[in-house]
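Render this sequence as a predicted structure.
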Amino acid sequence: MSGRIPQYFIDQLISRIDIVEVIGTRLPLRKAGKEYKACCPFHNEKTPSFNVVPEKQFYHCFGCGAHGTALGFLMDHDHLSFIEAVDELAARAGLDVPREASNTPAPHKPSQDHYTLLEQAGDFFRQQLRNQPAAIDYLKKRGLTGETAARFGIGYAPDAWDGLIKQLGQSDSALQGLTQTGLLIERDSKNGFYDRFRHRVMFPIRDSRGRTIGFGGRIIDQGEPKYLNSPETELFHKGRELYGLYEARQATRQLKQLMVVEGYMDVVSLHQAGITYAVATLGTATTPEHLKRLLRVCNTVVFCFDGDRAGRAAAWKAMEVALPVIGEGHLIRFLILPTEHDPDSLVRKEGREAFELRISQATPLSEYLIDELSTRFDLSHAEGRDQFTAEAKRLLTMINNDSYRILLYQPLAAALGISVDRLRQLIPIVAEQSSSRTLSPSSTPLESTGRGSLVRQIIQNLLHYPAAAKALNRLSELSAVDKPGITLLVQVASELQAQPDLPAAALLERWRQRPDFHYIDKLFLKAPPASSLEIAIDEVTKASERLLADRFPKEKFDELMRHFHLGTLTNEDKQELRELIKRQAGH
């Protein structure tokens, strides 16, 4: 779909949805006074510490710290993207998700009819499989049981140019829908259509809600291409989707790790063997979107590749994709299989226990990186060591996680046989990179302000009592105050004044995609300084007056400094300038 979701719709959605109903369909909530409690779904506990607060439309676990709105809960609990969570809540509320107009031409908007057509196509392929001995024999030779085939919805596309057309393409609208979903191809002459998938075992590709969004087809006999995927459509994007992720989440609600392999049959065979956390990319190399999606589900990802040249190249590519994405607490590992095997053949040969032993011994990304560099370059001479250092520098500059980058210096230096200090001299830009980074002016000071900061007190009161923003009637003057976090305060107050009835949960969601979300989120969790709206208004009024009274007159200071350089200061000006300099020093 084209265009962004307008902010007013997110506000409306958060205001309309009841967080107790959303979470209550997934957890057994028990009423406790004005709140609801349950055992937290994000960590193991016996005593409930997970609280849902209807008044604030917010949840918070006092055990592990998990918290957020109904939208955030769906993203964390159901492992949905922001867009998917919005769609889920909108469907629950009976609302259509609008899109803002964009400058680019809008592509065709998929409708529920497209999902229906894809489901009907899947039913047709499964029906055809029952009557096709060659396809059944192929799956049996690959070791698949009927139960596994049914769980993954595997089917068969008949060896005909119009098998699907005869079944589903009985109207112009159906033909158009089948073409837009990639199931049919229009002839160059514009004279009719033909089936994209013919004489292939069909693997339906499902989104996070279990809806079929595309297919992968494996040729049964000889022929090219061996694997054929649905083309890019409004529903199906190869660079984002992962085969088997829906099935993995259905098999295990709280996944501890996910393993990425290369083929459909690898995923299906591993699941059948009991390794139900295997997923696969869809005929494309791993993308940052793939990895970000995986890491939203769990913190550990294992890349499993064949040991041949192509598999090793794919592993190196996956490592390069992982470097900018890896964050604190993430563990990414690499498992390279023997050259004569792929995951499908190896798990059938040695069984689940032996294969999972290999997984447990998979190489962490840091070790894999250094091992590969040491293999690629001859460290016995200066030229090879120089090449090693140049490539290490390129890879280090890709890492956004400061602590992870710093930790890599020790093993890299050890591989070169030099000290860490010497390596820092050889790669000075990366060594200094973290210290040169800055956050937005409104973010950095706010994080360092004390508990009694006037700015922080005002923001906290506004987050818990949005109506208190009406007490700030001199925002333009406040924006000129030279205090940590003042920019953030003015932004929050401005939005609340423009929409006085905006719920606190909706305000929090407004900041989700902004750089300062971390600070807003953190302050929202803290208890409000005031115990009621009336007290909050009084505290906000007094705190803002103190900020304005204590502000530094920068314009006057600049004017006096200009006269100082021109030599035109009077004695009174000199005295005032001295006072301002003293004040600035203590400011």
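Summary. The first helix runs from residue 7 to 16. The longest strand covers residues 212-219.
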